[in-house]
Every structure is written in structure tokens, then in C-alpha cells.
Specification:
With 123 residues, this protein is of the alpha+beta class. It contains 3 helices and 4 strands; from the N terminus they run E-H-E-E-E-H-H. It has a 4-stranded mixed sheet, covered by helices on one side. A hairpin with a 5-residue loop joins strand 3 and strand 4. Helix 1 runs parallel beside helix 2. The radius of gyration is 26 Å and the shape is elongated.
């Protein structure tokens, strides 16, 4: 799992999404990267850090790729990454959701029915 160039990472990521379209999952993580040598001092408050981006295909992590995005390349990388995500959004499954309004309406109807049944007829 060596570091790939940004373009190579994006093309590999595209291939991972294609492979996992039928079955499988791709996990992508991003975190601040630190480039430090033993002799270099600690970075100051104005220092810019690269972003480490990793992608793993499947739960077992059979295929792992990673890249280091420098601050100067962040905007270009983010645009390309978002395009890849948009292209592969069609393989997501939609969940059936019950609207909250229907649930609350049903609950209020049930409560009013219970109250009308509890009231004595002669009072």
C-alpha cells in the first residue's frame, strides 16, 4: 500500500467503485497528514498540512490505496473526487421511509379514540 499520485489514486478509486457496483463496499477516509523527519522541528501554527486520503474495498480490506494531497492541489483533487462520487451515486439503494407527519397523525387519532372510549356516556 504505497502512496499513489493523485491522478493514479483517482483512476484506481474509479475502478474500485466499478468493481463494487454489484456487491461490496468502498470505504474512503481522509485525515490530516504530517510529514516529519527526526531532525525537523515541530510545525508552527501557520503551517499547512497535506491531506492523507485512503480507500479500502470491502470489509476484509483486500484492495487498499492511498495518496497524499498537498494544500496547493486540494481544490483540483476535490473537484475530481466529487465528480467520481456523483458518477457512482446511482448504485446506492433507496430506503423506504415513512413520513413523520403520517406517524404523528396516526398517534393523535389513536389517542383521541382512546379518550372517547374511556369517557362515561352519562357524564
Amino acid at each position: 500500500m504505497g502512496l499513489l499520485s493523485n491522478d493514479a489514486f483517482l483512476s484506481q478509486l474509479n475502478q474500485l467503485y466499478e468493481k463494487s457496483k454489484e456487491a461490496g463496499t468502498v470505504y474512503v477516509t481522509m485525515k490530516r497528514g504530517i510529514i516529519r523527519n527526526k531532525k525537523s522541528p515541530k510545525p508552527g501554527p501557520d503551517a499547512e498540512f497535506p491531506c492523507l486520503v485512503r480507500a479500502v474495498c470491502g470489509k476484509n480490506g483486500k484492495k487498499k490505496i492511498s495518496t497524499l494531497v498537498m494544500p496547493s492541489d486540494t481544490e483540483k483533487f476535490q473537484d475530481a473526487y466529487s465528480n467520481i462520487i456523483k458518477v457512482h451515486m446511482d448504485s446506492l439503494k433507496k430506503k423506504e421511509r415513512v413520513k413523520k407527519a403520517k406517524k404523528t397523525q396516526e398517534k393523535t387519532q389513536e389517542k383521541t379514540q382512546e379518550k372517547t372510549q374511556e369517557r362515561p356516556q352519562g357524564a
